[in-house]
Specification:
The complex is a heterodimer of chains A (337) and B (742). Helices cover 29% and strands 23% of the residues of chain A. Chain A has 8 helices and 13 strands. In chain A, β12 and β13 form a beta hairpin. The mean pLDDT of chain A is 92. In chain B, 31% of the residues lie in helices and 22% in strands. An 11-stranded mixed beta sheet of chain B has the order 7-6-14-8-9-13-10-12-11-15-16, sandwiched between helices. Chain B has a 7-stranded mixed beta sheet with strand order 28-29-25-24-23-30-31, sandwiched between helices. Chain B has a 6-stranded mixed beta sheet with strand order 17-20-19-18-21-22, with helices on both faces. In chain B, a hairpin with a 2-residue loop joins β15 and β16. The longest helix of chain B is centred in the last third of the chain and has 27 residues, at 659-685. The two termini of chain B are 53 Å apart. The chains are: A alpha+beta (337), B alpha/beta (742). The A-B interface holds A 184, 188, 190, 192, 258, 260-264, 310, 312, 314, 319-324, 326, 329, 332-337 and B 245, 330-333, 348, 406-408, 429-432, 434, 460-464, 467, 508-510, 512, 518, 542-550, 574-576, 578-579, 582, 584-585, 587, 589, 593, 612-613, 695, 726-727.
Chain lengths: 337, 742
Amino acid sequence: MSISQETHISLAHGNGGRFMRELIDGIFFRHLNNPLLNTRSDAASLPELTSRLKMTTDGFIVNPLEFPGGDIGSLAIHGTVNDLAVSGAEPKFIALNAFIEEGLEIALLDRLVGSLAAAARNAGVQVVAGDTKVVSRGEGGGLYLATTGIGCSVDGLDLDIMNIRPGDKILVSGSVGDHGTAIMLAREQFGMSGDLKSDSAHVLPLTRAIYPLPGLRFLRDPTRGGIVSIMQEIRQATGLGVRLSESGIPILDPVASVCSMLGYDPLYLACEGRVVAVVANDSAQQALASWRALPDGENAAIVGEIENSSQHVILETELGGERILEELEDDPLPRIC
Amino acid sequence: MSAVTREIELDGQVQGVGFRPFVYNLAQRHALTGWVVNLKGRVRIQVSGDPDVLDQFADDLVRLAPAIARPHIRSVRQVGFADPGGFKILTSDSEQQADIHIPPDYALCDACAAELDDPNDRRFRYAFNNCTQCGPRFTIIRALPYDRRNTSMAAFKMCKCCAAEYHDPGNRRFHAEPVACPACGPQLSFSSDGIVESDPERALERTIKAIRDGHTVAVKGVGGYHLVCDARSQRAVANLRLQKNRPHKPLAVLVTPDWFERHVNADDVTRSLIMHTARPIVLCDVEPGVLADGITMGMPSTGLFLPYSPLHQRLLQSFDGPLVATSANLSGEPVLTDNVDVETRLGGVCSAYLHHNRAIVRPADDSVFNIIAGKARPMRLGRGYSPYELTLPFELAEPILAVGGQMKNTIALGWNNRMVMSSHIGELTSPRSLSVFENAVTDLQQLYEVDASVIACDAHPGYASHRWAMQQSSAREVIEIFHHHAHAGALTLENPAGDKPWLVFAWDGTGFGEDGTIWGGETLLGVPGNWRRVASFRPFRLPGGDRVSREPWRSAASLCWHSEYNAYNAPKYELLHSAWLKGINALYSSAAGRLFDGASALCGICEQASFEGQAAMLLEAYADSHAVAETLEIYHQNGILLADWRTLPAKMSDDSLSLTDRASWFHATLAETLVEIARRCRETYGDFRIGLTGGVFQNRCLAEQALKRTAESGFETVLPQQLPCNDAAISAGQIIEVHSRR
């Protein structure tokens, strides 16, 4: 029986035999085919690289596997590439692990791996090694992916959270909360995701555009916990305060309206294709202009600044009040009478 | 009879109230010799004379004490005879260990008020006039003992005249620490558009003119700044509301005693409360039409208060009409106190400021009272009452710091048999609130020289006070108290004597419950430290998390959806309805406050609120007490009684009934349901006293009916008078609960 005749993944696809070979060749290798990916070897041989290497690893679990604006395949590439990009590295190679749940539709897997391959090509990275495992029905959410990425450090770039100084400006490359909102709507099958798409994308044009800025201090991609979690990270690492301006933070109307209906705060919701940059005050306008010149950066904005007059993450509300943005609760409970 | 010598020690409110000159004069009158000395927080007197006269003297010490003093004789003992020949006031001794009592701020006394009006007096029109019987205390004290050098008056060197009065035991300004006059004391200044008028009289004139022109002026008072405007001008009030972004919440109005008598039909309780030396804001029924409509925005009563400082007296005299005087702050934050701060933070709200140069050491918002069932009930204890102290009915084994809740936050410090509370701090969501909170924690412990070894906090993990407490857990033991247990504990302080257990109805908007759901309609049986939930409301989901508190329509929608009542089914509700079905950001709650919100929204009275409690207050405004009450169905589940509200949506949406009928029915039915729960509990558990607490019982219509109906069923029922029934009492309740558990 060949892979083309099976419609769903069975445990046999993980037993090391023919089914597994057909799965790897027929789906993974077919999509990911590149000179460095060799199914007959247990390790990839990589070309010699001249600069220092950076390595990152990440796991991807998302429900649903396909969602408006993306899927788990492209998300895995974007997540890995973006982690390298905000660390000041040009992504080069990726190793991939796929944990496939018994019963997953093969056509869906094919689409997801195809999407992953396209995202990799688009970001200029090669998947050079991989492995698959099949887990029993009920033991995995359809498909889990784990990636490891290697990139080359960009010369002369010194990105470090400890470089951050009072007075530095905080920029975000686009609207916040899109991914979190889109996923929530898709997952809960609210059936109204029309206007809402995940922002899942690689951020290389954005990061490359501001690497040369002398005042660039620190970059991060806001994923789980949204931009507030990055601000909390900055606060905790540096002991400095962060002041965000509510009116300056780009939020798309449909995101704002869904969040306001459901009672969520988009500042705590994940993005998958945005960058937060902390830059010296005198480089802020230049950074903003470089981003706004890019298609993925047209909504970029200066959203706040670093201060030493407080040690909180403070949101200046549109009405002129101040609200402390606390670290995300596991389970936000109503606090107000 | 031969002369003897006795040493008398007093504590209580004996410092900063003119007690030593009173003792001096009293000793003179009885022709006794000896001395009086201030110890820290205590007064010691040695007097020699005939035993009969000494007995009379001791009686008079309490009976004739100055109005604002509250002396307690702690001990009287006979000592070796001594006759120093004359009576002296000795200098304070700060080394002594004794109970510390800190006086609150007092309203202008009659003697000082008369000087303000006397062109021949050197304090004519002086806005900072005070004596031992009046003036600021708590808000100017930096440290103890209470001497001028430890207050914000240290910056002003007394002139010769003031110094002479200060040192003269026969003068009513003897050791009046904030004593001042135009030659040496604080002064007013007016600032607008960057131009400063520092002549005090012209500063006041400019202020009055700005108010007359319809502007809002930020005026620095005793415990903070007020935003002040003309209370008769609809335009000025609307303007203030717009600038302060306070569209509906009622505004307090400062009026003269004459105005009060002319336009308020007040009973004796109201009158004596509003005249009290703390000068609280009292909710009053004002003659219609004499104030701008925008002041109460549809609420039946108006918060009025009388001038409490010479400055406010002068403002009212010069303006000659009622003035809106609302705390100058950003919503939910403590009142602003600093000259520079106020101009920075309120730049968008007003452009004129009447400053003065006496620093306010700690903020104290105005206190607020309501009259329910003929008794004064505090809603907020601040200026004039702070530091608010209660005597505990037990001795604490160790000092406890209780950090309160999240909204209307106060903190409390308990040690020995004493408990002192901070002034109103407010909502702990802004950095300023949190910094005032942290200052209060340090401040109370320093002032009273108590170092708490235990911290009590609310069990809600998301409260800022809870987070703060957890950060201290390496150094001090932290104990979490469930919100409604704290409410119940605080309630028992109202009447701690007696053996009967309590049945406490703790009804409010939200609190983290023992079962992880949001409580707020609970009936707790027991005694402090040991509460058992015996009844509640049928749980319902709160769709949208914290948003339900400002959007009463969400409660209404949820009640309808649970009751399968045909409403809130338009397409725009589909998303929320699916979230509600799936329980996404839609926790279960049993909060009575949300039932009021739902009822108000279902009647169409208030679907969107701009402040907490607005929907319930507007609903109450329609209610009278004549409705025929029904009882909600009460059923057993998991060993407790649950009141089922599922008849509400149909009843409250019934357009064939007037709003008054519906609102009245709702209040009467909740009161009757409460009584029915109590009756069933009595059958099951035997006798108890009933307590009513939680912010919902600030509702006069509900509270009065609950008191009346429980009394008719033979219950003894307590509605708080010492502490607010709202979350301001959480800190006090936490102390009671921590102690009682140990």
